[in-house]
Design goal:
alpha/beta, Rossmann fold, Uridine Diphospho-n-acetylenolpyruvylglucosamine Reductase, domain 3, five-stranded parallel sheet, 50% helix
Length: 348
């Protein structure tokens, strides 16, 4: 690691792994064939002996770009051969995941590809005996995600951006603090080969417009350290959210219980809870029934009003086919049309 540029990038990955507590472990690195993932694979290979990593490369072929997708897979297999690291590939079909679903429930092609990609990577990691999965998200990805969420509308949790570790602790992002320009400089300095995805040049995608046109102008015209500052904001918001979620979990433990597919909710003192805590509890209740994505701010406000003032024997309907009903000292949240249960409709 004598070369300073190589030492800097590999050192950043090493520091990230140290902070994440990764040592003496099986690790599958997700490699698409693009420059970010190729550099990550090379950096992890350089660190494998030092950190006691059993390294495997995983590649997911989405089949969305025809012959180019096949060439991506071939390039990843060639990288694995050059590094002496085994490569496992999996083909997925994002279009099939969207078929036969209503427009309300159907994911975008990008969402379907992402869902199938992570599912495939977990399966590949399981087969390889790898506890961890490393992806090549960079500081640029973090900034793009954060700004897109702000532009489209988000709450405090959305400002946390991309976490350095997934909620289950398995997916790691050790390049999250490294800018793409540093990644590309590293790749050129060491004559690495990578594939370019021509869809990254398509301004029909909002992320591409942000990456190609808006972010460079913001950095040049307002703050040359924009990527770092956005990364710091995301990290600060994630740390705050971790503390807040601990408070929510403790409150939920005393208020929520499950019963035959329904969620029982203690009706006491909802009007005494701080607004922020009450909203997070309401969202958590909906997430536990798989409906958090369907609810808007208007629906959430209506739900909270009912939790505070709803009369016994009344109920409201919520998106996703849910009903929230008041029964004396508790509420029941669950399917609106459940055989054997009929709740009269009520206002909030």
């Amino acid at each position: 690691m004598a070369d300073s540029k190589r030492a800097k990038l590999v050192g950043a990955v090493d520091a990230a792994l140290e902070a994440l507590g990764v040592r003496e472990a099986g690790l599958l690195v997700a490699v698409s064939g693009g420059v970010d993932s190729v550099v990550l694979a090379q950096a992890l290979h350089a660190l494998a002996e030092h950190r006691g990593l059993k390294l495997t490369i995983g590649h997911v072929n989405h089949g969305l770009r025809g012959a180019a997708s096949e060439a991506d897979q071939a390039s990843v297999e060639a990288l694995g051969a050059a590094l002496g690291v085994s490569v496992s590939s999996r083909r997925v079909d994002p279009a099939a995941l969207r078929a036969g679903r209503s427009s309300r429930d159907r994911p975008t092609l990008q969402e379907a590809a992402r869902e199938l990609r992570y599912e495939a990577l977990r399966e590949l990691a399981d087969a390889a005996g790898s506890h961890f999965i490393a992806t090549a998200h960079s500081a640029d990805d973090q900034a793009e995600t954060l700004l897109l969420r702000i532009l489209r509308g988000t709450g405090p949790d959305g400002l946390g951006g991309i976490p350095e570790r997934s909620a289950d602790g398995r997916i790691l992002r050790p390049l999250l603090g490294v800018e793409r320009r540093e990644i590309e400089a590293h790749a050129r300095a060491h004559s690495l080969s990578w594939r370019e995805d021509e869809s990254n040049e398509d301004d029909g995608y909002a992320r591409n417009r942000l990456r190609r046109h808006w972010l460079p102008g913001l950095a040049e015209g307002f703050n040359p350290r924009l990527l770092q500052q956005l990364g710091h904001l995301a990290e600060a918001m994630r740390r705050d959210a971790e503390w807040i979620e601990g408070q929510v979990a403790r409150e939920a433990a005393g208020r929520f219980s499950s019963e035959d597919g329904w969620l029982r909710i203690d009706a006491k003192e909802w009007d005494a809870l701080p607004e922020a805590l009450a909203r997070r509890l309401a969202r958590l209740a909906l997430r536990r029934l798989g409906r958090g994505r369907d609810v808007s701010r208007v629906h959430l406000a209506r739900m909270l009003a009912f939790l505070r003032d709803g009369r016994s024997g009344t109920a409201i309907e919520l998106p996703g086919g849910l009903s929230l009903a008041r029964e004396r000292e508790l509420f029941r949240l669950g399917p609106a049309a459940t055989p054997g249960r009929v709740f009269p409709r009520g206002g909030c």
